[in-house]
Amino acid sequence: MKISKLTLAIATVLGAGATSGAFAMDLYVDTKTKQIYAEPGRGRELMGSFEKVQSATAKPAVKAEDQAEIKAIREDLALKDNAIKALEEHAKEETAPGKAHVKLDDGIHFATNDGNFTAGINGRLQVDSQTNVTDRVATATGPNPNNQLADGMSIRRARLGVEGTFFKSSFYKFEYDFTRGNGTTGAGVTDAFIGYNFSKPFSIKFGAFKEPFSLEEATSNRYITFIQRNQAVDTFVDDLNTYKMGIGANYATDRWQVATSLQTEPVGANGASNSATGTNGNANRNGSSGDTNWEVNARVTGMPWMESKTKFLHVGTSGSYINVNNNYLADGSALRSGGISYAHGLNNNVDRTNIVNTGNLTSGNSRTGNQANHLTRFGAESALVYGPFSAQGEYIATNVTGRGYDNETLDGYYGYVTYFLTGESRNYKSKTGAWDRLKPNRNFDMKGGWGAWELAAGYDALDLNTLNIKGGRTSTAKFGVNWYPNSHVRVMANWVHALDINTGAVANTTSRAFNNADLDAIETRVQLDW
């Protein structure tokens, strides 16, 4: 019978051997039954003294080939033992604080292996175009500029930044947009903050960051449905430069989120904006009197119905109180800086000509002129996702108070629907209560992959007319097609049609020329972000 390798190895390693021993024993026989016993008894006769020998099983003979195999096994075990020790030492080195790794699956990310420090390089590039198919506007006269909207192309955004964590709980972000501010110092800064996560749901941050207001504003421009944000959001939030200095707090769970902030002015002027506060350019306050603007903001969102990540209802509300800084020359005869104005194009993308325009709401003499002192904003939002279908709408109102203004309310609203022909659903991020990156079910390739295709249609209205404010009124219908070849590239096309343009009472001559204008524009965007 062949000895198994394991038995042979164990026998050899342990050096199993045999032992033996011998001793004398008396035996007795029953005279009747002839049975043999080891003890005397009635009817038993002594047979004699006998010697008992006990020995172990003989050691099996080990063949020469088995001895060679045992030697090989021993050598293999020694090599494995050395390998295990080397792996233990390598693992210890790799988990040391100074060791880091790079991950490239969703951008460029660096992290130490102990998780204490992370850094990610982010960026985006948006190349836009605008073609005005119909552009019937009142002809300009005299020295006035041409009222026609221009066709063309532009780099809408070109941003580069870094964000990450240190010692796990602290976080930071810095981002610069090379298209903002027209060269104004600091104007290109968007996010520039540091923060701390007290727990998974609660965090605070300090620096420059977005106001917590509006669903569409909380959504990064990388993920909005149409190329340009809707008019009310652009005019009352985004165009004022929503990246302002201050302190903010956020509390978010899987189903609801609360964000608040106390903020002042932005780092620099936003040269791409239409609406503006006059102090936007006074980043360091040199050469200008008066304190900075300041504001208190809050936004609360939740999902009262959630069947799954692809079937849910989102609702939310936002509120702000803004104290406006008004500055004058020493004699009080003219406005030096400050105040606020609201102006906007018609979902314009490349040509951002102001079609509605309130002009500066603080004007004239410091003692008798109109003066906008406080703004109160209110917003209501809702969105529904049901598989590939979604619907979204918002209402935003801004109340102006001060000398010459008796709770004047400017407002606007929008609504739109979308549908993914390829079956995807909009991706929702509960931490921000806003939309996040969409990932196609199958990326575009030359083997049958189409990427993700989305259709969108919406209505958009803005009213800047009140009893004492004449900024104009507009409404549009728009349609969009979005193609996502993969999760980081998007191609967009929008058609914007003016339904109503009422600017007959606007003081600005350019805006007034667009009264009852017939406008149609086709806008496109090619976007890369990481």
TrEMBL record:
Residues covered by region (Disordered): 267-295
Pfam families according to UniProt: Porin_O_P (PF07396)
Keyword Coiled coil: no
Signal peptide span: 1-24
Keywords: Signal
Domain of life: Bacteria
UniProt biased composition (Low complexity): 268-290
Protein name listed in UniProt: Phosphate-selective porin O and P
Organism expressing this protein natively: Methylobacter tundripaludum (strain ATCC BAA-1195 / DSM 17260 / SV96)
